Amino acid sequence: MLPNLQSNPSRKVLVLKPVLAAVFGLAAGMLFVLFTQSSPLFAFKALMTAGFGCQAPDNCALLTTLQWATPLILSGLSAAVAFRAGIFCIGQAGQMVLGAAMAAQLGSQLNLPAALQITLALAGAAAVGALWGVIPGLLKVHLNVNEIISSFVMNQAALFFLFLFRAGRIPPAARLLPLAAGTKLNGGFLIALACLLLVFLLLFRCTRGFGWRMSGQAPLFARFAGIHTARSVALAMCLSGALAGLAGGIEVLGVHYRFVSSFSENPFDGVIVALMGQSHPLGILLSGIFLGGVRLGSLNGLQLEAGIPRELGGAMIAIMVLLMCADRLYHLLRQRTRHLKRQLVKPRA
């Protein structure tokens, strides 16, 4: 049964805000098309067909979109877990790079049965990502170091430690099998779906996840309730880093079959997906697929078919994120205004 959105205004807003942001972002993009002297309707059709169309099993853009969405979903989950714990971490890019390097080394150097080698490679990717992810959290809770600065610096520092890894090409036996012939959509997408379910259950159905959320939303209340906030933040940041490292490992074992140091033009994809999905696993799934489809459609549809620069897709995504952030700014300003009004009308003693 579908949830009754009318009886739950907060859930209704949770659904409508990203939908409206996506609609206005696409509409603004089509307005930009007018400056290229092209037809907005043709451009929109080309974008949607190249990003979400599926004419045949061997000619299905949607499958490629799901492949592109896999690292977006995992990095978005990584950012969302950190956000829920009160840490605005932007270090997913560095965690993915180190996870990819570890997966490439274990996947190319070990000589084990296929299932065991893949499992160890992905576990190693998650472990090194967790190690790299917990550092900004510890710096925040123990030394009060700004997590945005520390995680940004660690993105750059991750590139320095790549010399520790010796990675070759991934042999066929250690690769993630494709889910559909003729595509690189692999078992990593199923792993991403399993991680979505795991994070949902952990954050919203488990006591430990409740402690993480309270440590981020109401740290004083959490301390009075007996929750060890420093430990909660550390565990949450371990999971956050592990998810990003796992994303890098899946890209190596299932898509590129070798180490790559860059997975996207934007190193803050995880933050974008988490913001558009409002740090909720279901929203992250939808926003990851939508973002992957828009990027694929911008490349194959707008640029190749319509002759419109693919950067237009990035502009539409930027507008969507701005609308999501502007909504939060609007509510913040409204709360401040109400507080000032109460102070002004407060009777003098």
Q: What is the secondary structure topology, with strand pairs?
A:
Elements (H helix, E strand, L loop, with lengths): L8 H25 L6 H13 L1 E3 L2 E2 H24 L7 H18 L4 H30 L3 H14 L27 H18 L1 H11 L1 H6 L4 H28 L12 H8 L4 H23 L7 H35 L4
Antiparallel strand pairs: 1-2
Written overview of the protein:
With 349 residues, this protein is mostly helical. It is built from 13 helices and two strands; from the N terminus they run ααββααααααααααα. Strands 1-2 form a two-stranded antiparallel ribbon. A hairpin with a 2-residue loop joins strand 1 and strand 2. Helix 1 crosses helix 13 (311-345) and helix 2 (40-52) packs across helix 12 (281-303). The longest helix is centred in the last third of the chain and has 35 residues, at 311-345. It is globular and about 65 Å long.
Question: Gap between N and C termini, in Å?
Answer: 55 Å
Radius of gyration: 22 Å
Label the structural class. Answer: mainly alpha
Task: Give the quaternary arrangement of the chains.
Answer: single chain
- Output mean pLDDT: 86
Mind summarizing the main beta sheet? 2 strands, antiparallel
List the secondary-structure elements in sequence, H or E. Answer: HHEEHHHHHHHHHHH
Q: Into which percentage range does the β-strand content fall?
A: under 5%
Large-scale geometry: globular
Strand order of the largest sheet: 1-2
> What count of helical segments does DSSP give?
13
* Uncertain residue segments: 1-9
Q: Please report the total strand number as a whole number.
A: 2
Share of helix, binned: over 70%
What is this entry, summarized?
The protein has 349 residues and is mostly helical.
